[in-house]
Amino acid sequence: MxxxxxxxxxxxxxxxxxxxxxxxxxxxxxxxxxxxxxALVENLEVxxxxxxxxxxxxxxxxxxxxxxxxxxGEPIRLVVTQAMQELAEQLGRDVAIDFERWAQxxxxxxxxxxxxxxxxxxxxxxxVLPLGSRKTQVxxxxxxxxxxxxxxxxxxxxQSYIIERxxxxxxxxxxxKMWDEEELGKCFEATMLTVAMRQTETMKALQAIAKNLNxxxxxxxxxxxxxxxxALSPRIKPETLCGDKYLQIELPWCDFPSVLDSQSDIYPS
Length: 269
What we know:
Elements (H helix, E strand, L loop, with lengths): L8 H12 L17 H4 L2 H21 L9 H18 L1 H15 L2 H19 L19 H7 L2 H14 L17 H25 L2 H18 L37
Helix pairs in contact: 1-4, 3-4, 4-5, 6-7, 6-9, 6-10, 8-9
């Protein structure tokens, strides 16, 4: 996905849902575990006010201006830009950029999505399950063994299951059905919340590895990750794990410019 694709019609619909997650009343118990910037979590009332204005502004832009098909996502870009500028003014530029990157990382970057999913499967199978419990299990390399208990704690399968069940319990049903006979399922925001939680857990596990190993050792773990992934499914493309790219202390983020650096006018004439 390119930067321009973020603002196309279909992807743009995800922005408002993604940015609503920190302030949804039913999602409040989970806000601290989905990787949001600490300063935002500690000042949710600030974002609640900004988001409320963003919703109204989006409606105003859609009503008062006619947008050609190829620019139907433009109101979202304008609204997100204005909201992040206001967040930067109130909580600081770093907080706004981190929040923007958080949304991009979890809901717009296919590479991150696939890589973290692959690594979660690898770490669950190789480090969380008891050693020797599966024929498809590839023993972790010796350099990883001292970190296995920490990884197993971060990726505690029972705890994750309990949290996901609680999200399903408290989340409202989707207001939409694909056909009349279909039963209403959980809302899309609940799915997004679960995705963010799982990916945050996986990133913490990868960070734990990165903090304890040097580059050569991380590359050894990356090679093991490929072997474990292929043992689980020979059809998996090894490059989807991205080598040791995500075995870093720094959180992954998409290589997109921030809306705060956009040279475009917020309100085009």
